[in-house]
Amino acid sequence: MEERMEFAVRAMQTLNFRALCQQYGISTKTGYKWKERFWRKGLAGMAEESRRPKSHSKQLAEEEVCEIVRLKLAHMAWGARKIRELYLRRHGEVASESTFKRVLERAALTQKRRRRRAPEAGRLSTGREAAALNEVWTVDFKGWWRNGDKRCEPLTVRDEYSRYLLEVRAVEDGRSETVRKSFERIFERHGLPEAIRSDNGSPFASRQGLLGLSRLSAWWVVLGIDLERGRPGHPQDNAGHERMHKDISRELEAVGECDQDALDVWRETFNYERPHEALGMRCPGEVYLASERKYEGTPEDLDYPKMCSRRVSPKGLISLEGQPLFLSTSLGGWSVGLKPIAEDVMEVWFGRLLLGQVDLATRNFIRADIRPNKTAKETEKV
After folding, report:
1. What phi, psi does 221 have (nearest 5°)?
2. Same domain, yes or no, for 214 and 341?
């Protein structure tokens, strides 16, 4: 700034302007610009000015802006897209939709739409396409149908890689205890998978539970099974399972079959008689083998050899330095691991799931972000 002012003063007096510009290391064009500013505005003209253009070749005229605002005031419930279409019909030529949005936003005649996050009960894994037997099992309830006064809503469980239908059972209800009994029978026959993929509905997940854990899915975690959940409103995340449900609709629901004997016959046909193109025209029963991970019953509790543990009460509480801390009723009866990571800060783990952190100074529990599980190397460090 001082050099500019010095240059401007000397430029008003010197006869050799080009030599003066070379002395200050500027072009003659810049020199004339500074000299002209000093002549018009004095020392204030030496300050930096915005490079923003004073106008734009495509800038709307004042009349056009007023017309857009007038149309909006006449149709307050309409958005920018409809206002633009109305303007086009009346005047022929029209600016872009983004220009209309900008005009209405500046006139405070529109509000940015709030994006509502779909309720999601803890997306613990982004999902994967199974590359081996028993890597991922998929589970869901087939939509119910009736035959007279009898209602049928079968529970279906399937190995994603082999398409083998592990179970199709008309359960009495969808409570966690009922579904757990079915899975105990499945685990006894076929062993344990690496992961189970479900939707976000009960009893597989809980919208109120910590990380979406229900009593059923918490039991799966205790058994060492990873959890996967599809996105709400995205049945394509479990496309193969949904496709199988369509077959059930056409071949059982359409003819009113709903007893367990009919479901067993259909499962046998699906597994051992119906070839699948994805399997090279083999049947699922020709591909599937039981898991090498045997089910040996439910352990008494989880063990945390590198952390201290606390048992969760039936009301979802743990005791921390004599004070109660609420986690989730879904974890009642199981222990969680506490791992110090900083002064007055501890991580809370349930099996291989990071539930969140506890600030010991304030007794605040900060839930972990809903994100995929840590990698195997990370969990080994824990």
Report:
1. -60, -40
2. no
